[in-house]
Design goal:
mainly alpha; 0% strand
């Protein structure tokens, strides 16, 4: 999870806790083959999105924002997970 998502999730969790609602966090583990495919896809999307942002000449503001979302979705956790794979 990237920093912005972590902050948003922690706020959500705190609001639930203030209402007396316990949030159950569950981690789901995938096979090594599935992990490899997922990491590869995410890293490829990042590279492609960054390439388009750097080279495309005529992008609308919405297209730029969408590509930035894709490019910055990959974070340090993804690289650490891939490294540990």
């Amino acid at each position: 999870m990237n920093r912005a998502m972590t902050i948003e999730f922690n706020g959500f969790e705190a609001r639930l806790q203030a209402k007396g609602i316990l949030l159950l966090k569950m981690q789901i583990y995938a096979t090594r083959e599935k992990q490899c495919k997922t990491f590869g896809k995410r890293l490829a999307r990042e590279v492609i999105a960054e390439g388009l942002l750097n080279k495309a000449k005529r992008l609308t503001r919405q297209q730029e924002e969408d590509l930035e979302l894709v490019a910055y979705k990959v974070d340090g956790d993804d690289y650490r997970s891939f490294e540990n794979y």
